Amino acid sequence: MGVWDIIYLVCMITGLVYTLITLFFGDAASEWMAQTELPVLQPILLVSGLTAFGASGFLLNRFTSFSPLMVAGIAVLAGMVIAVAAYFTWIKPMENAESSVGYSMQQLAGMVGEVLTTVPADGLGEVIISMVSGRSNHMAASFDKEMIREGTRVVVIDVRDHVLYVAPLQNSEDKESM
């Protein structure tokens, strides 16, 4: 086995070992490296490229009559192609897929809820709002300064100082059929 074979095998084995460690013991190194802002330095890209470089270099070196320099060039190219493919397969889609169950109070404006505790004309009651993340209870005041009875469906008109200003939902049958 030549020097180039050893280099390629070390690269390939390093990538495979990193993959197995990540698979079985979590991705602590990925979290550490993910703090970088450059998408090129994402661990999955580095490991994919390193593994592809090592594997293609080893196979080309062993089973073709190409010169060592040509094998190294093809191996580098193969590593880069696999890294780019990994970027568009995993990294790019995940950037758009990140979501959170958290929300800001301002996002509640326009949402529909139900009065749990009667909202007096000049006081606070309680409404429940159903969202993707579950149901949440909030203090509510009447936007029109009119009492809103328990069980009434309401729409959030405004949010100020962590209080939802609500009004009874008109034509609730029309809204439900949409």
Automatic annotation (TrEMBL):
Residues 5-99 form the Membrane protein NfeD2 N-terminal transmembrane domain. The keyword DNA-binding does not apply. Gene3D superfamilies: Nucleic acid-binding proteins. The keyword DNA-binding does not apply. The chain crosses the membrane at residues 6-26, 38-60, 66-90. Keywords: Hydrolase, Membrane, Protease, Transmembrane, Transmembrane helix. GO terms for molecular function: peptidase activity. InterPro entries: NA-bd_OB-fold, NfeD2_TM. It comes from the Bacteria. GO terms for biological process: proteolysis. This is Serine protease. It comes from Brevibacillus composti. The lineage of its organism: Bacteria, Bacillati, Bacillota, Bacilli, Bacillales.
